[in-house]
Amino acid sequence: MKASSSKAASAPQVGVIGLGIMGSAIAGNLLKAGFAVFGYDPLKAASKRLTGQGGSAEKNTAAVAKQCDFILLSLPSVAALESVAGEIASHGQRGSVVADLSTLPIEAKEQARDVLAAAGMILLDCPLSGTGEQAKTRDLAVYASGNAKAIARIAQVFDGFARATYKVGDFGRGMQMKLVANLLVAIHNVSTAEALLMGTRMGLDAKTMVHVLADGAGGSRIFQVRGPVMADRSWNNATMKVEVWKKDMGLIADALRDLSVPAPLFSATLPIYHAAMAMGHAQDDTASVYDVLEQWATPAVVKRAGAAKGVRKKP
Fold this sequence. Notes:
Layout: H1 5-10, E1 13-17, H2 21-32, E2 36-40, H3 44-53, E3 56-57, H4 61-67, E4 70-73, H5 78-91, E5 97-100, H6 106-118, E6 122-125, E7 128-129, H7 132-136, E8 141-145, H8 148-161, E9 164-169, H9 173-201, H10 206-213, H11 221-232, H12 242-259, H13 264-278, H14 289-308
Parallel strand pairs: 1-2, 1-4, 2-3, 4-5, 5-6, 8-9
Antiparallel strand pairs: 7-8
Helix pairs in contact: 2-3, 4-5, 5-6, 9-11, 9-12, 9-13, 9-14, 10-11, 12-13, 13-14
């Protein structure tokens, strides 16, 4: 939806640090909504993509922080968060609101929050629900946690790239909600692969199954999102890379261990994602777990087929 000229004139300048799959899609939607977007990513291709979308690619985080009242972080690691928080604290504007959209340990986010607070800035913990592909169509949900007034101030920015914002409480509650959501995603992704593989072994068409089952009691949001990717075998076009997902799985496993929560279904998915890494799917979408299960199933299928074609014993 294109923003009106009045909205475009009044919209604040927004910074986006990290222009990967998710950050790039978010920046693109903010531009469509009428915001002025200033971004930074160490990869030149990502910066060039932002320029092509109509945004301003800056040479570093400091240059973004100097110009923006609101800054969004979409970062891959704790080290990146530490570095970016330090630069924003040193060069940003007092009173700025920074929303960390990344999936990272709460402790690391708390440290970044304290660094920014010392410089008169507010950090919010706001992880996202949705894939990179969903981000392109604004099909994201924000799990916003932290200073309530700051969340209200940045709400218009969230509206520019997400379909919903949920205020989930004090700082860190966003990440807790995200870990619970990701536990479900881990299971639903593998269950989608299991179901489709079973169906194809029975001779059902994969695309037909996706169309029919997504509308039934057994369907899920992940089935709707990842089912088509599995059916098309298009996991090389990643919207959530397996190697990135492995980091998220580690955070869930740590939380389960610390809380002494039994998680047999989640635990059963771990070796499947590990196998995806071992099979060379690190840069592929997590829908590639279908290939893992298919490869595991193939020897049994071949063995049964060979037995069926065996020579009959003479009486």
